[in-house]
Amino acid sequence: MTAAIVVQNVCKYFGAFCALDHVHLEIQAGEFFALLGPNGAGKTTLIHTIAGLSVADSGSIHVMGNHVTKQYRQARMRLGIVPQELVFDPFFTVRETLKIQSGYYGISDNGAWIDEIIARLGLADKADTNMRALSGGMKRRVMVAQALVHKPPVIILDEPTAGVDVELRQSLWDFIRELNVAGHTIVLTTHYLEEAEALCNRIAMLKQGKVIALNSMQNFISTMSVGYTLRLRLLPDTLPSMLQEIQTGYRNGYIELKLDNYTQIEPVLAQLRLSDIQILEMQLLQPDLEDVFVSLMNNPLTQTQ
Ligand SMILES: Nc1ncnc2c1ncn2[C@@H]1O[C@H](COP(=O)(O)OP(=O)(O)OP(=O)(O)O)[C@@H](O)[C@H]1O
Question: What residue stretches are annotated with the ABC transporter domain (predicted)?
């Protein structure tokens, strides 16, 4: 498989502050990849260095085999970036903005593709509206459209759904999924972990500028032993004292217990039987990406991989 993005041993400093600390990452062509981490972890800094907007202090980055600073134009042509900030020229309409953006890439006859992205991003009735007259969510749609004008093989979306309504989120993801199926590599940063879980096949987690975890989504959740949650509705609504130490919460009439594995279910049931407590309802919740994320971010011992 061709590597879409190769980040080798990259460090980036702002003064004495180390924002990227020996980051190593290889994203294959065709992947739908999530780059996650808390605020300030270094995600945007990494994206800026991949885009050549910011220069790494050490290490190297290639996009589809092109060095991002030594072969800037070739690398940039292969990359579409949806930035986190809304950057636009208020004097142009949506269609003009997309035509001008196409011009930056040397594409003059791009009308059919511009029409298609305008339609797919729900911008058809705003196509001739001035950028300054658009709502925040609509401007965000134009940011996505701008990143796609040159049909880049690699698309990076930096929190594209921040402040965006449910309808656009859905249509945006349908469109991005289609692009991925058609062979485009997608890299996504988001704070909506359920989006990453639903869309991405591989994931890297950044913490304080370091990659602290890198795995397939499936392995990520199954190999991180963050345990299961057993939810019980009981009659009477109390736990025997033996079980109180594994109780983690009480929500909406359900007592919640933390279990390390499935084998702990039977002793819990035995304790309830012994205490003559009736189970009205029982649910076993699998860990999800959010559980893994919280566990990793709260663990002071998490090491760089
Ligand atoms: N131009 C800059 N000058 C100084 N420090 C910076 C600059 N850009 C980023 N930083 C710092 O680098 C760190 C990483 O910031 P970055 O924006 O990459 O984080 P992030 O993971 O994208 O966060 P968020 O989820 O909030 O977008 C932060 O501590 C930030 O304050």
Answer: 5-233
> Do you find a cis peptide bond into 236, omega within 30 degrees of 0?
yes
Beta bridge partners of 60: 8
Q: What 8-state DSSP symbol labels residue 130?
A: B
Q: Please state the pTM of the whole predicted model.
A: 0.81
Work out the angle between the directed axes of helices 94-104 and 111-120 (0-180°, nearest 10): 130
Shared domain for 175 and 115, answered yes or no, is: no
Query: Can you tell me the distance from the alpha carbon of 89 to that of 92, in angstroms, rounded to the nearest whole number?
Result: 6
Residue with CA closest to ligand 1 atom 25: 39
Task: Compute the distance between CA of residue 140 and CA of residue 146 in angstroms, rounded to an integer.
Answer: 10
| Residue that is last in its domain, among 103, 131, 151 | 151
pLDDT tens figures, 40-87: 999 999 999 999 999 999 999 999 999 999 999 999 999 999 988 888
- For ligand 1, is residue 98 a contact (CB within 6 Å)? no
> What is the number of alpha carbons within 13 Å of residue 97 lying toward its C-beta?
28
Between the CA of 34 and the centroid of ligand 1 the distance, in Å, is 18
